[in-house]
Amino acid sequence: MTHSSHTFFLISSAALFFSGIILLSYRAYGWGLLLMLGLLILYLSANNNRTIASLFLLFLIGFLTFQCATDWINGWDISKETNILLNRSFLIFILVTLAVSQWIAKKKVLLYMRFPDWSKRISMPSHTISMPLFLLIGLAGSSTIFIPLIWSEGMSEMKSLFLFAIGFTILNAILEELIWRGVMLSSLIRNTSVIYAVTVTSIGFGLLHLSIGIPLLLSLLFSFGGLFYSIVVLKTDSIYPSIAFHMVMNVGMVLNGWIN
């Protein structure tokens, strides 16, 4: 594959992937299946880099299953909180199909499942900082999500939300990080450039928030969160800090009433 054809393949695959997330989020299943067919054609026509097309295609298959499962439970007579928790648990479908894509490619699933090296120094543009300081800065930045609570008058209501916030946070943060930074990022880095891998996973992470009713522009802003988590994983070579920061953000989002 020549450099130009390889570039076309990467751009086309990412475009189909992003478009598929958007269309399936809006439940335009027919168009979504058409884009999945496009990824299948790319997979069959590519002599190299089939792993990338397979990864994107299997993700969308998992996401379609996720959406169908969500549509199914929407007809149940259950509480709003239970519905949301079940919705987040259905992210396991995406994780399973991603694991299948790695099995098809005969690649080991890499999840960055190692603890940070506390003695490591993190390289910055003009200097280095210690691992503990880097993580402390990240935690401080994530904790800004709680600032709006300072002016909140509904502290009693927040207490009743706490258990729901914990359940939502555990399901959402762990599964989303395993999907995007665990499987997707590690697989793409293994087969493409770091810039491509980080860009695709960050934008995809943001767009997936369309499925829970967040507007397109705000979902794209969530991509910066995906960028932050990717940097944390790559700098620490561990997924655990990004899960922790993601959990902090999710608790804040629930207590601020942004998840309903």
Question: Can you characterise this structure?
Answer:
The protein is mainly alpha-helical. The protein has one domain. The chain is 72% helix and 2% strand. It has 10 helices and 2 strands. A two-stranded antiparallel sheet has the order 1-2. It is globular. It starts with a helix and ends in a 5-residue tail after the last helix. The mean pLDDT is 91.
In brief:
The protein is mainly α and 260 residues long. It has helices spanning 3-25, 29-45, 50-73, 80-89, 92-104, 131-143, 155-191, 194-207, 216-236, 240-255, and strands spanning 121-123, 128-130. Helix content is 72%, strand content 2%.
Record keyword descriptors for this entry.
260 residues, mainly alpha, two-stranded antiparallel sheet, 10 helices, 72% helix, 2% strand, globular, protease, metalloprotease, hydrolase
Number of helices: 10
Distance between the termini: 48 Å
Approximate shape: globular
Percent in helix: over 70%
Question: How do the strands line up in the largest sheet?
Answer: 1-2
Number of strands: 2
Order of helices and strands: HHHHHEEHHHHH
Count of domain modules:
1
Mean pLDDT score, rounded? Answer: 91
Global Rg: 19 Å
Low-pLDDT segments, ≥5 res: none
Protein name: CPBP family intramembrane metalloprotease
Keywords: Hydrolase, Metalloprotease, Protease
